[in-house]
Design brief:
Blueprint (H helix, E strand, L loop, with lengths): L1 E6 L2 E3 L5 E9 L4 E9 L6 E7 L4 E3 L7 E5 L5 E6 L8 E9 L4 E4 L3 E5 L2
Parallel strand pairs: 2-11
Antiparallel strand pairs: 1-3, 3-8, 4-5, 4-9, 5-6, 7-8, 9-10, 9-11
């Protein structure tokens, strides 16, 4: 099992920046991939960014060149730096972990990001 503790989020004006963090605990030795997804009202959940243990990072098309995903020295805390935010980035952002041992994903409770003037 995993515990995913998310932090960051909030209200920001267009063009502003926010930083989201997610710390995983529990069966962390079985983590294969960590990342962020988001879901806006009336839309499907979509990939924001994720990275695997081999160092591969993948970004959703709409956030490339604006968002940066990183992992700290402890490996099981990730940070999503979001720059040049747009109103269409407004969504609930969810931390996600894939466990190779369990063969399934785990989700955080979500944190709201609102981009509005």
């Amino acid at each position: 099992q995993f515990q995913l503790v998310e932090s960051g989020g909030g209200l920001v004006q267009p063009g502003g920046s926010l930083r989201l963090s997610c710390a995983a605990s529990g069966s962390i030795d079985s983590v294969y991939r960590m990342g962020w997804y988001r879901q806006a009202p009336g839309k499907e959940r979509e990939l924001v960014a994720r990275l695997t243990n081999d160092g591969t990072t993948e970004y959703g098309d709409s956030v490339k060149d604006r968002f940066t995903l990183s992992r700290d020295g402890a490996k099981y805390t990730i940070h999503l730096q979001m720059n040049n935010l747009r109103p269409e980035d407004t969504a609930v952002y969810y931390c996600n972990v894939y466990s190779w041992r369990m063969g399934r994903e785990y989700w955080g409770q979500g944190t709201q990001v609102t981009v509005s003037s």
